[in-house]
């Protein structure tokens, strides 16, 4: 046995030594490579495919789910700094349902299901208000999360207390919202407006001005900024086009009733001021407008009275130190002196009016209306040519149209701008033959060139043709029927030989023969059955 083993060993050694190097490498590398391939294939074939069970979890939620998975003995993996949990694909759906049945993940938020699950008579009003407010915040955050670009939302609502007295004014509520948005997502203006409207309509007595919305980077999401961030030029041109189309339709309908819709064309152009002006006016007006007086609020009266002896004797005129030469001095007075002065001061209060006026940003500063009227008449001349409106008729139509358009211009333009506008310069009325299509021209020519008697003659001719055609068809039908009758062969009735009947008395055979003849005449079917039965017996 040992000799055989040694013999095989020597053969193997000899075989190995006689092999070249590349064969030695191939003999060693092939089994090793085969083992590696089998091992790697087995590894990936037996490895479980992991799929996300939950994404974007908070640390608290991830901890709750991890604890439950450990208790169930389910393998899992964590990704995204613990915010995403991966589980085997085979049991992912069932595991998701089981965790949901257990109320996981628990966010710690209270929704309206709390009231049905925790109804209690011992809850105080304050506790109820707090829980209700928390539930409202949770539901509002869930609504905002459904908007594209929002991962999650945190809502804080400040609701004022109800007033004690009926006469007290109801205070306004306020709301602060922080949105966790997707990276690089920009909200459209309609989305921002929808968020503000949604929050305002969800919470009672909450105006949109009391709502603050920011993202996770505390960047303010303003509705006014979003609205003004659109294309202002496009909006202005759209408004301008709507105004012009509205005016054009009104003028077109009005003039169509006068001259016909097919005989008039209208074009309207406007100059619109989109500047929004805000100004403050402080006015003072009298209370009594008739006398232009205010309301007296205080009256002060000062009375001065003096009584005394007569003055001293006057000197020589113009000789005093402070007197002008050659100017007569006052005459000498005699008797007691007296002085009386009454001074009255009245303070009036006037109406003080302060106005803060915000002008509309859309005001028509100028308007131009161009009207084209077909100068062709609807009736044609005897020679078939279209008639034109005379100069007098054109003048009458133009005056009527201008009168209507002047009223439209004066009422459509801004009041201040209307003072500097001459309506005659804003209106243009022209008369021009309208180009018509070939079919329309042919119809007009036919209508204008065919007299009434031609229509009558044509109708009579049409009736005559119909009668002739009917008679022709009827005559042909009669001829066809006659020809069919002639072609049919003549039918000659068969000759029946009736044997003479003897006057001899009826025998039994004769009686049977008569009965059979009678049966054959009255009931051929029964007679045939009888014959078949006799033949069968024979």
From TrEMBL:
Residues 255-403 form the Flagellar M-ring C-terminal domain. It is found in: Bacterial flagellum basal body; Cell membrane. Residues 46-222 form the Flagellar M-ring N-terminal domain. The chain crosses the membrane at residues 21-45, 452-473. GO terms for molecular function: cytoskeletal motor activity. Belongs to the FliF family. The M ring may be actively involved in energy transduction. This is Flagellar M-ring protein.
């Amino acid at each position: 046995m040992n000799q055989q083993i040694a013999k095989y060993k020597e053969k193997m050694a000899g075989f190995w030594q006689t092999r070249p190097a590349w064969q030695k490498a191939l003999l060693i590398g092939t089994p090793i490579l085969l083992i590696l391939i089998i091992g790697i294939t087995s590894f990936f074939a037996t490895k479980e495919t992991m799929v996300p069970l939950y994404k974007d979890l908070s640390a608290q939620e991830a901890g709750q789910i991890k604890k439950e998975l450990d208790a169930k003995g389910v393998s899992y993996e964590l990704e995204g700094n613990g915010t995403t949990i991966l589980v085997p694909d085979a049991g992912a759906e069932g595991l998701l349902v089981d965790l949901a049945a257990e109320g996981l993940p628990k966010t710690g938020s209270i929704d309206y299901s709390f009231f049905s699950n925790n109804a209690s008579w011992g809850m105080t009003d304050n506790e109820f208000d707090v829980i209700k407010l928390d539930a409202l915040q949770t539901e509002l955050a869930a609504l905002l999360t459904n908007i594209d670009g929002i991962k999650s939302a945190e809502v804080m609502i400040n609701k004022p207390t109800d007033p004690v007295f009926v006469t007290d004014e109801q205070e306004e509520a306020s709301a602060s919202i922080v949105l966790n948005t997707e990276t690089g997502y920009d909200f459209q203006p309609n989305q921002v407006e929808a968020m503000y409207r949604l929050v305002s309509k969800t919470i009672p007595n909450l105006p949109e001005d009391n709502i603050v919305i920011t993202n996770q980077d505390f960047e303010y999401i303003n509705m006014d900024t979003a609205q003004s961030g659109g294309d202002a030029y496009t909006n202005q041109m759209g408004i301008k086009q709507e105004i012009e189309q509205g005016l054009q339709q009104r003028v077109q309908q009005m003039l169509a009733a006068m001259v016909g819709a097919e005989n008039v064309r209208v074009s309207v152009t406007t100059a619109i001021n989109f500047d929004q002006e805000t100004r403050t006016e402080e006015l003072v007006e009298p209370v009594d407008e008739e006398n232009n007086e205010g309301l007296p609020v205080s009256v002060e009266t000062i009375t001065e009275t003096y009584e005394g002896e007569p003055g001293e004797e006057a000197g020589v005129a113009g000789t005093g130190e402070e007197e002008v030469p050659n100017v007569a001095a006052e005459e000498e007075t005699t008797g007691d002196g007296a002085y009386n002065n009454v001074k009255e001061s009245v303070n009036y209060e006037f109406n003080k009016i302060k106005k803060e006026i915000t002008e509309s940003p859309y005001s028509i500063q100028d308007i131009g209306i161009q009207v084209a009227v077909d100068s062709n008449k609807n009736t044609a001349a005897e020679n078939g040519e279209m008639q034109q409106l005379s100069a007098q008729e054109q003048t009458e139509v133009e005056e009527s149209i201008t009168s209507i358009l002047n009223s439209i211009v004066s009422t459509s333009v801004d009041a201040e701008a209307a003072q500097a506008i001459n309506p005659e310069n804003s209106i243009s009325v022209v008369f021009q033959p309208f180009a018509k299509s070939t079919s329309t021209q042919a119809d007009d020519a036919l209508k204008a060139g065919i007299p009434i008697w031609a229509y009558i003659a044509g109708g009579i001719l049409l009736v005559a043709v119909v009668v002739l055609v009917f008679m022709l068809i009827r005559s042909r039908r009669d001829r066809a029927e006659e020809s069919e009758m002639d072609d049919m062969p003549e039918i000659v009735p068969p000759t029946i030989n009736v044997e003479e009947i003897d006057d001899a008395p009826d025998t039994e055979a004769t009686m049977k023969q008569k009965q059979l003849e009678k049966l054959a005449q009255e009931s051929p079917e029964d007679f045939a059955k009888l014959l078949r039965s006799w033949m069968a017996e024979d």
